[in-house]
């Protein structure tokens, strides 16, 4: 490969990377919508479908969470409200923190107990495979990256004179 063709190749790579960066809002939007919908629909089911609410209550009782009836209502409401806010991209940092808290408690009380691996590497592999961990990672990324330009937060704060 000549130095001229290498230079052209590097220029092409740079151009592609710059263009990809310009489209990062799509990834943020998809992540925000997917995780927001997951929580919104989960919270909705637990709030408005008695069978789902009872299933959640039984899970909390089995995990020895205090006041399971109250916690079902609190967690379901948090999921429903902050899931909707995440979908809209409204108060995104607060939504990420609140839903992240729900995920940390879910990991600590139920999900981590299902890990059966004996070796540290096997345990880590099973831990990282938990859907709650993936949601937590995505929420942390959204907290740091922001909601993207296609959001209520951007609409409000791009016009605000702070």
Gap between N and C termini: 53 Å
Spans with pLDDT under 50 lasting ≥5 residues?
Answer: none
Q: Write down the secondary-structure element order.
A: HHHHHHHH
Mind describing the biggest β-sheet? Answer: none
Say how many strands there are. 0
Radius of gyration: 21 Å
What is the overall pLDDT average? 94
Number of domains: 1
Give the CA-based shape.
flat
Fraction of residues in helix: over 70%
Please identify the structural class as seen in this structure: mainly alpha
Instruction: Give me the number of helical elements.
Output: 8
Q: What proportion strand?
A: under 5%
Write a brief caption for the model.
The protein is mainly α and 162 residues long. It has helices spanning 3-22, 24-48, 50-62, 68-88, 92-109, 120-128, 131-145, 152-159.
